[in-house]
Amino acid sequence: MNNFYCILIFLFVISSLHEVCNANIYGYNVTIVTSSDKDRKFDSVTGKFKIDMKGKDAAGKNFSHYIVLNPDGDEIKFNKSYSFPAAAQYPIENITDVHLRWTLKSPFNPIYLINKPKVYFDRITLQANQLERGITTLSTRIYCGKKRKPVGIRHDEGELFETCLPVPLYPIPGLTA
Predict the structure, then answer these.
(1) Any idea which UniProt keywords this protein has (predicted)?
(2) SS3 for 110?
(3) H or E segment to which residue 75 belongs
(4) Each residue's pLDDT tens digit, 105-155
């Protein structure tokens, strides 16, 4: 009887490993673009970008995939683009929204107790690199704020960016920085 349980556990472990090893992981290049609008100019700050990709999976269930893009922090400046590699279990076609949040690298500066800094963002671009049967496909999806104008986000707050161009798109010079 002990052999039966050992075989049963062995089969369970093997089937679990099979599912984990066959999970698709999609590679992305995430580009965050700060405002170029002279009316939305801001002082540079050192901060971290955090995104939450949202959408529906193949079964129609809502998903949320949270990623800290730059754990060490970068200087966030006016009219700049920042690119980071990222990975997720979901294909680009299923990602409908991206929630962007940023935090100061050192939020304990007394200056920020009175006035939290605000950074303006133009758009977020996801570029997917998919490899199927030896063929690499590049798809791009661009996400914008609600009114397609620069979105102001204060430290430790966030904003939802929605798809503003259809998918699949191929890289457009100037938009995929």
Answers:
(1) Signal
(2) coil
(3) strand 74-76
(4) 887 777 777 888 999 999 999 999 776 667 777 889 999 988 888 999 999
What does the domain layout of the chain look like in residue ranges?
25-163
* Beta partners for residue 95, in sequence order: 55
> Thinking of the domain 25-163, which architecture would CATH place it in?
Sandwich (2.60)
Kindly report the three-state secondary structure assignment for every residue of 23-66: CCCEEEEEEEEECCCHHHCCCCEEEEEEEEEEEECCCCCEEEEE
7-27 tens-digit pLDDT: 545 545 454 444 444 567 888
What H or E segment, with its residue span, contains residue 73? Answer: none
**Whether 143 contacts 163, CB under 8 Å:** yes
Instruction: Let me know: does 100 contact 49? Beta carbons within 8 Å.
Output: yes
